[in-house]
Amino acid sequence: MFENIATGFELFFTLGNILAITAGVCLGVVVGAIPGLTATMAVALALPFTFNLDPVTGILLLVGVYKGGVFGGSITAILIRAPGTPAAACTVLDGYPLAQKGQAGKALNMALYASCIADFLSNLSLIFFASLIAGLALAFGPPEYFWLICFSLTVVISISGSSLTKGLISGLLGLLTSTIGLDLVYGTQRFTYGNFNLMGGVSYIPLLIGLFALPEVIDFYVRKVAPFTVKAADRSRVTLAEFKGSLLSIIRGSFIGVIIGTIPGAGATAAAFLSYGEARRTAKSPETFGKGNVEGVAASEAGNNGVAGATLIPLLALGIPGDVVTAVILGAFMLQGLTPGPLMFQDNITIIYAIFIGIMLSSIVLLGSGKLAIRYFARIADIPRHILLPIVLMFCVFGSYAVQSQMFDVGVMLAFGVLGFIMMKINMAAAPFLMGFILGPLFEDNLRRSFLISEDILIFFRSPICWIFITITVFSLFVGIRRELRATRAKRDAIRASGAS
Amino acid sequence: MKISRRTIVGALGAASMLAFGTSAMAQDYPTKRITIIVPYSAGGATDILARQVADGLSKVLDETVTVENRPGAGATLGTTQAANARPDGYTLFMGQVSSHGIAPAVYKNLQYDPVADFAPIKLLMSIPNVMVVNKDSPFQTAGEFLEAAKAEGKTFGSSGVGSSIHLSGEMFKSRTGANMTHVPFRGSGEAVPALLAGDVDVMFDNLPSAMPHIESGALRALAVTTPERSPKLDGVPTLDELDIPELDGFAARSWFGLLAPSGTDAAVIATLSEALDQVIASEAFVNFADTRGADIEGGSPEEFSAFIASELASWKTVVDDAGVTVE
Question: Where are the transmembrane segments (chain A) (predicted)?
Answer without folding.
Answer: 12-38, 58-80, 111-139, 193-214, 254-276, 312-338, 350-374, 410-439, 459-481
